[in-house]
Amino acid sequence: MCIVAKPAVIVVDPVSTGLHVAREVLARGFQLIVLHSSDADKPACIANMPADVATHAVAEIHHHGTTLSALPHDHQSVDMDSTLHALKAHVVGGVLAGCETGVTLADHLSDRLGLTTNGASGAVARRNKYAMGECIRNAGLRAVKQCAATSWNSIVDFIEHDLKPVPFQVIVKPVESAGGDDVFLCRSMTEVKDAFDHIQGHVNQLGMTNMATLVQEYLVGTEYVVDTVTRHGVHKVVAMWEYEKGPANDAPFVYFAVRLVEATSPKHKAIMEYTLKVLDALHIRHGPAHAEVMWQPHEQAPCLVEVGARCHGNGGYFVPTVDRCLGYNQVRATVDCYFDPTAFASLPPFPGKLLAHGCEVPLVSYDEGVIETCPGVNAVASLASFQCAYWSVGVGSRLVRTIDVFTKPCSVWLLHASKNVMEADVKRLRKLERNRGLWTVQGEAEHAGLRRLIANVNAPESNRQGAIPAEYAVNLMQPFGGASASAEASARDKQKAEASSLDKAHSGMSAQKKADRGDIFYEKLIIFKTSHNRIKENAESDNKRLSSKDMSQEVDRGQKAKQIQTVT
């Protein structure tokens, strides 16, 4: 009996959910070829590729051509001669995009190989957000008002003559990126200019240089994600999610939760039907996609934010949750739509009633510093609906404030038969964040005491509360009144000496050391200088007014103290 070996399947940039796609390919008995696109951050891709994928691939190829995918037109060339030469030794049965950076190369390569493909023609509109928006507008669908700019003057012209936002709210972001990377909500032309300067020509989180900046109208409403798979133009919606996003750490769109939706209402059906028309407009006739769509209540209609012509990202952590809630998932359905027509046909056109309720809760860090303890690991795992958690930080790690999906410290996945139980756990996680119950960072205890002290120093006497820490022996709550002149002088000298010492220590610190300490020295300086000023003001023997220079310095210090107080 002759056993015919299955062909090889190429996964372009098997990163994030692409790793799960690569594993599914191997599990089906196909040979795996890993292809790194020229857009991808190659060192990171290689370093982070798990052994179960890297060691089982029959080939690992580095594409050295260019896709020029940031340019909003189709007359581009992709140099694939060396890549095609490297593939000659293999019988290739399909080309799949693993992540966003692999989409354009997958389209061009599958086209050149004569395989199932969405085609090289129109590939730009499946990556470039400006071209994408114009493509669906030309198809007669609701599209966001926008312009793609490489110069400031063109942005000014678009906002002043075309967009004319009232109130002034404008979105500025790269034409190609993902995960909320460098997405700005601007409320003035000055903020638009700052965002443009930050984006244009800089390298984004996908390792790509931003060749153009996208300026769009601000869509108001609730944002949904529609996950799909398609075979020969037949679309299946395999999951629908609802985003909970909002401002945090001066960033406008931080993810707080991503909930799997029971997509059976008329509104949900309208969103899904609109999404399928978007896929047709973008000529997505094969493979996976996920579309971010805003439901605008004032229009009672959906509007596209953007589409990714690949699987839902987020590390692929959604796969076990969706499996439990729906009985299938987008990764498995992706391989089905290319290689198993019977399994694809058995998928329902739209998701039905949920078997359980699932939700991702991206933890939000409001702190910066080196993590000393991580009590949140046990606290999170003890939740009634806890399914799994993916921590990107731990003891000794550098914690940063969360501003997008790339800076979240942990992704917690909840799953339960009861939606109420799951939602109660979401609230518990938010409470742990607010109460600093997830982690402690270096100097956090000292910070808390210092901030309480600053609050007392700046509060009206009638509103002061709490004891002054023992190390700050000078009475800041009341004037020295009954104290002897010698005691007052001694206290004043002590304050001056401490402040001088701290000044020297602070100025001699490296920037990194200051960051690691949370700038505790600077907060101490504010306290010492504020308290020293109070002693001077309240001392009966001191009736001189501060000089204008000292006064301006003191006002500045007071403002900084209030800023710190506001953080609490």
Automatic annotation (TrEMBL):
Comp. bias intervals (Basic and acidic residues): 490-506, 536-559
Record has Ligase as a keyword: yes
InterPro entries assigned to the protein according to its UniProt record, in alphabetical order: ATP-dep_AA_Ligase, ATP-grasp
Keywords: ATP-binding, Ligase, Nucleotide-binding
Domain ATP-grasp positions: 133-339
Region of interest: Disordered: 485-514, 536-568
Keyword Ligase belongs to the record: yes
GO MF: ATP binding; ligase activity; metal ion binding
NCBIfam families, per database record: PRK07206.1
Entry protein name: ATP-grasp domain-containing protein
Taxonomic lineage of the native organism: Eukaryota, Sar, Stramenopiles, Oomycota, Saprolegniomycetes
